[in-house]
Design a protein that fits this description.
This protein is of the alpha/beta class and 375 residues long. 39% of the residues lie in helices and 15% in strands. The termini are far apart.
Length: 375
């Protein structure tokens, strides 16, 4: 472990939080019309060109399958957040899109991640909990799960009197980013680090690259809780392109590493609810089924039409594009059908997930389809 000086400035965040808050409240709460019933008609007003254009653009957007009720988390409050106890002194905060975790201790608060969409609501949640417990509210330690701005872009709100802890690669990536909203860590580690503050304990571990080169596992043994961000999405299909992962074999392997931990509660970093072990099982099945469907597609789909259409013109990229796009469509179809109603948004990102899996199978697993060794 090494310690290095960090930044001390407090940074103001600009965001689209009002829009996100409104959307989250819209998911969690019934409409005013549903609550109030019929209302008196008001005189119609002529639509402005801008309003007409917005309505037209909205009408053109695609429809998707309903989200299963079990995929939703608790309703957010009027400020746009929910804070809840996981167990003992461990808490989580969500705005229905992102999640953070914090641990109250007799010496201060340890925070894991600071998503900018939650922003100052994370401070409000900490104040709310610590005030009710009569514990110190000052954040003394902040842990970065990884370097991505969507998860730690609110870290600058906590000022300079905070020990910031991250993997060594996180520090190098943040040094390159030079983002004042993501102050450099003051303490880094390579493989494992135990963080003990005020009688509480978190175990940090690096098991290799997965979603990002620096993504770590954060385990609270006293509370049987694992925080692993951008790998498992409880109740939902994985985000686009297999969570935009930079190392897809490592991301797939992270599911097995997570399975080996003795947790009962998972903080996944996204969306509105916590996870249980059954959520990991379902996502492992989804990933495995997608991988099998991709493998079958790459080994059986006839490439002849694509070569016949574009080969004579010498447009090799057109061959690749149309073949790979068609392969993604074919591979995604049975997976979407199997998981609709089981995972929310199975029809939203599975096509892109199939495309990412195809590229990984070709590049990482040597399943090259018609672009393999020439006879």
């Amino acid at each position: 472990m090494k310690a290095e000086p960090g930044d001390s400035g407090t940074t103001r965040l600009s965001s689209r939080r009002g829009l996100i808050k409104g959307a989250a409240l819209g998911v969690a709460l019934p409409s005013a019309a549903a609550l109030l019933g019929p209302v008196l008609a008001t005189p119609a007003r002529a639509a402005t060109p801008a309003a007409s254009a917005t309505a037209s653009a909205t009408a053109a957007l695609p429809d998707f399958a309903p989200v299963p009720a079990a995929s939703f988390g608790p309703a957010v409050n009027s400020d746009g957040y929910f804070v809840g106890q996981i167990k003992g002194n461990l808490y989580w905060v969500t705005d229905s899109y992102y999640q953070a975790m914090f641990l109250t201790t007799r010496e201060g608060v340890v925070v894991v991640d600071a998503p900018p969409t939650i922003g100052n609501n994370l401070l409000r949640a900490i104040q709310e909990v610590t005030r009710s417990l009569g514990r110190p509210s000052r954040v003394t330690h902040m842990i970065y799960s990884h370097n991505h701005a969507d998860h730690i872009g609110g870290a600058g709100l906590f000022g300079g009197r905070v020990e910031r802890i991250a993997h060594v690669q996180t520090r190098e990536l943040l040094r390159r980013a030079a983002d004042p909203n993501r102050p450099l860590p003051t303490t880094t580690f390579k493989n494992n680090l135990v963080v003990e503050v005020g009688g509480e304990r978190l175990e940090l571990a690096y098991h290799g690259p997965n979603h990002s080169p620096d993504n770590i596992f954060i385990y609270a043994p006293a509370y049987n809780t694992l925080m692993l961000v951008d790998v498992i999405f409880p109740g939902w299909a994985p985000f686009k392109n297999l969570a935009e992962s930079q190392d897809i074999p490592g991301w797939i392997g992270a599911h097995e590493t997570a399975h080996a931990y003795p947790w009962t509660t998972l903080v996944g970093g996204h969306l509105g609810r916590l996870g249980i072990r059954a959520d990991l099982d379902v996502q492992r099945d989804y990933v495995g089924d997608l991988q099998n469907s991709v493998r079958k597609t790459l080994t059986t789909m006839d490439p002849t039409p694509f070569f016949e259409k574009y080969g004579a013109t010498g447009n090799g990229w057109a061959i690749f594009k149309t073949y790979l796009d068609a392969a993604a469509q074919q591979a995604a179809a049975p997976v979407i059908s199997a998981y609709l109603g089981k995972l929310a948004a199975a029809d939203v990102f599975t096509l892109e997930n199939a495309s990412a899996m195809i590229n990984s199978m070709r590049i990482d697993y040597d399943v090259l389809g018609p672009f393999g060794n020439h006879a």
